[in-house]
């Protein structure tokens, strides 16, 4: 069991180094999405919590329920974008099937509201 | 032997199902925002107190961002706890050696306190709990705040 763990740790380290070198070249991987009117903007990270959630002053007029729903909607879009970008970046160094198995889905590029990279 | 393997397979599948559906709910220390999040940072539910909106757009963004981070960390920690229950602390510590420390080990006092006005004393920082020396200690369970 210890050998298996050490082998797994070594493999993770190797992949981590390859990924790290790749990301150093490509820059941090994030996804960004905004409401059509700019009320909510979310910068998401793949597989983690959003790095930044920003709301405009006008968004406060949506009320707590409306604003909460909009934040959730935009955050989901931003994270999908981040996952897609991570998938596109890492599929050169990691088997895409393993990425999908890890939950890093490659979504379709969408160009509806606020998609920016 | 085949029956034992079958049991292990079922237990593993059960653990995967539980981890896949796992979320944690956390309320911000200011009580104005509550978030339910998955270990992957997905926001499953978000509740904003009406009074939070009176604090301005910047405060809303900051509080929601912090609460989502806290809820995600809590969900990751619950995942570690469930894994330790199912596989034993030894295996959970092995996983930490590969995937990195659990949030309970790697974060403490994770909310950045708001800047205090000049006349007000800065908020007291909580001391980090001593790290368990003995691997047999239940390091994964000794912080009740993760078990909400």
UniProtKB/TrEMBL annotation, chain B:
UniProt xrefs under Pfam families: YbaB_DNA_bd
Region (Disordered): 103-148
Extent of Basic and acidic residues compositional bias: 122-133
Protein name: YbaB/EbfC DNA-binding family protein
Organism: Lentzea pudingi
Biological classification of the source: Bacteria, Bacillati, Actinomycetota, Actinomycetes, Pseudonocardiales
């Amino acid at each position: 069991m210890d050998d298996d763990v050490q082998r797994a740790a070594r493999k993770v380290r190797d992949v981590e180094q390859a990924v790290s070198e790749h990301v150093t070249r490509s820059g941090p991987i994030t996804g960004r999405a905004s409401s059509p009117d700019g009320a909510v903007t979310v910068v998401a990270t793949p597989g983690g919590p959003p790095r930044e959630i920003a709301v405009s002053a006008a968004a406060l007029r949506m009320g707590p329920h409306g604003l909460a729903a909009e934040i959730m909607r935009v955050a989901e879009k931003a994270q999908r974008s981040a996952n897609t970008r991570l998938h596109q970046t890492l599929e050169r160094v990691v088997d895409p099937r393993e990425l999908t198995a890890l939950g890093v889905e490659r979504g379709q590029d969408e160009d509806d509201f606020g998609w920016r990279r | 032997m085949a029956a034992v393997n079958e049991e292990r397979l079922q237990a593993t599948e059960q653990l995967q199902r539980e981890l896949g559906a796992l979320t944690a709910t956390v309320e911000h220390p200011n009580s104005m925002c509550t978030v339910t999040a998955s270990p992957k940072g997905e926001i499953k539910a978000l509740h904003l107190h009406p009074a939070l909106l009176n604090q301005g757009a910047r405060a809303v963004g900051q509080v929601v961002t912090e609460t989502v981070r806290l809820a995600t960390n809590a969900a990751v920690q619950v995942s570690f706890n469930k894994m330790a229950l199912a596989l034993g602390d030894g295996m959970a510590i092995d996983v930490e050696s590969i995937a990195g420390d659990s949030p309970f080990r790697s974060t403490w006092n994770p909310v950045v306190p708001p800047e205090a006005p000049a006349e007000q004393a800065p908020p007291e920082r909580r001391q980090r709990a001593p790290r368990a020396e003995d691997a047999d200690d239940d390091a994964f369970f000794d912080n009740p705040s993760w078990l909400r």
